[in-house]
Amino acid sequence: MYVMRHPALSRDEFVSSKKFLEKSDLLFLVPLIISVAIMLAGMFFSGGHARNAVTIITGGSFTIIFWLGVVVIGMLLPLAYDLYEMLGKREAEPQGKSRLGTGRRIYA
Question: Is the pTM of this model over 0.70?
Fold first, then answer.
């Protein structure tokens, strides 16, 4: 993913700020996943209308919306992307001479 950096930041400052944002995103995502799991378990074991709500969300008419929208798109995809960015292989910037005006690089 290409992120445009501010011209006032040096390359090292930009990389360190990007790493900080990736780590801080994980600091919010992991507690969010844990808190949603605890909330669902608490609602399920409390009984009454709360248990009915959890049953509808996890196995009723709103199952697809909950699992696909909230869990997969809202929690797991950002978590997987952040982990990939932190632990995965990063592409190095191509080293080569740029042709004038084309933006293409010549590799020798």
Answer: no
